[in-house]
Specification:
alpha/beta; seven-stranded mixed sheet; globular
Length: 426
């Protein structure tokens, strides 16, 4: 089959960068007068999640250092719902992947899947909503949620992925995460997160939150310490700022998107649904743009530990990816989130070349060599892309794109697989 020729381009984003994160965190903690909230001897549970948040270990250590300096006793709790195979050791291992251990951050990591019930929220015409919380966090004098604030991969709202969601889903562990995902079907995502999160705020357990915003290069652009009384409104404002800095594909209509890597360290759904334009979420409308006819995903990251949640968002994949899938971790994630449809295994082939040829045979009357094709390393990395010849003219007119290579055929190794994205000769 004649395949399209490809060219490497750089995509430029307005991307502010925070150059000294520890200093910025110290300044933020000073600005909210942390010493008026947390007293010497107080225990403080700091949350750490399962997403690939930029500089997260650095941020946690900076907060630990500050709290220890004022005489508090901080420790870290995994706040990731059912991730890590829904086991305490699995969640501890996830944090280790992100560089968060007692040795690296200077505070104990207390992992448990046990929860306590803080109370319940009455809901008209239906069952009450119980409020669950990680047992170690519930035992602490204070809780400080730390998380990236960004667009969610399952729904759109004024509150999406961030501190409130971590307080509800993350600290709810598997039991809470599963219950709240069920409640989403009845009441909607945003209502459950704000209602349960509001209950947790009203308990007085939350000392303050630390919100991180990333630029399109996946680097920390801003950090904000938020007193509990202002957490909900400030997170709404920071979500707007975060969305304005999000990376995205430069074209809205494609015949084929090739993604080298999917994984939980990249997105909760392996691939960011805001980038690929596919959500596959019950009771939520599909995005209108981007409109991508076929998606081929080549491999699963090592950091994902076999959790291939979201692989069903693709149309085609490889045997090597399927062989890496940990069914227990993937199924547990899908069942807890009530999204089994997102993790169905796509058509898979032994080589990249075969998968690409099959994919391009399913795009209608467009000849494969004329297809609108983009290749990216992952949905987190959108500053370098390979574009097919059919997109080259548009790319030259795009103000944020810089063509840095020459058109050349897709290059496969002796096994029939594409060369690693970073090694492509452009």
């Amino acid at each position: 089959m004649a395949l399209p020729k490809m060219v490497r381009v750089n995509q430029h984003f307005d991307a502010p960068v925070l150059t000294d994160l520890p200093a910025a965190i110290r300044a933020e903690l000073e600005s909210i007068v942390t010493t008026s909230i947390i007293k010497p001897g107080d225990t403080v549970a700091l949350t750490a999640g399962s997403r690939g948040v930029a500089n997260i270990a650095t941020a946690v250590k900076a907060i630990v250092d500050y709290l220890k300096k004022i005489g508090a006793r901080p420790f870290v709790v995994p706040a990731m719902g059912s991730h890590g195979g829904a086991t305490a050791e699995g969640q501890r291992t996830v944090l280790e992947h992100y560089g968060i251990t007692e040795e690296t951050v200077g505070a104990p990591v207390k992992a448990s899947m046990e929860v306590v019930k803080l109370g319940k929220l009455p809901q008209a015409g239906s069952d009450d909503l119980p409020v669950f919380m990680d047992k170690y966090a519930a035992q602490a004098d204070h809780i400080v949620p730390i998380n990236r604030i960004k667009a969610h991969t399952d729904f759109n709202g004024s509150i999406e992925s961030g501190l409130m969601k971590m307080m509800v889903i993350g600290l709810g562990k598997q039991q809470g995460a599963n219950y709240y995902h069920r409640a989403f079907f009845q009441y909607g995502f945003e209502h459950v997160i704000t209602a349960v999160g509001g209950f947790i705020l009203d308990t007085g357990k939350i000392a303050f939150g630390v919100g991180l915003i990333e630029n399109a290069h996946e680097d920390t652009a801003k950090v904000v310490a938020i007193p509990a009384a202002r957490l909900l409104q400030t997170e709404r404002e920071l979500l707007v700022a975060s969305k304005s800095m999000m990376g995205k594909l430069p074209f809205d209509e494609l015949d084929l998107l090739i993604i080298d890597w999917t994984g939980k360290n990249i997105s909760g759904t392996g691939m960011d649904t805001n980038v690929i334009g596919r959500m596959m979420q019950n009771f939520e409308p599909e995005p209108l743009k981007p409109a991508i006819l076929r998606i081929f995903v080549r491999d699963l990251t090592e950091e994902s530990d076999g959790n291939a949640t979201g692989i069903g968002l693709a149309d085609f994949t490889t045997t090597r990816l399927v062989d890496k899938i940990d069914r227990h971790a993937t199924y547990m994630n899908g069942i807890t989130a009530l999204g089994p449809q997102k993790s169905k295994i796509p058509f898979y082939y032994d080589t990249d070349q075969e998968a690409i040829e099959v994919a391009l045979n399913t795009i209608g009357l467009t000849k494969p060599e004329n297809a609108r094709v983009v290749r990216i390393e992952s949905t987190l990395r959108l500053t370098e892309l390979d574009l097919s010849e059919a997109l080259l003219q548009d790319a030259k007119l795009h103000s944020n794109l810089e063509v840095v290579g020459e058109l050349q055929p897709l290059e496969f190794n002796e096994s029939g697989n594409l060369l690693p994205f970073a090694l492509e000769r452009h």
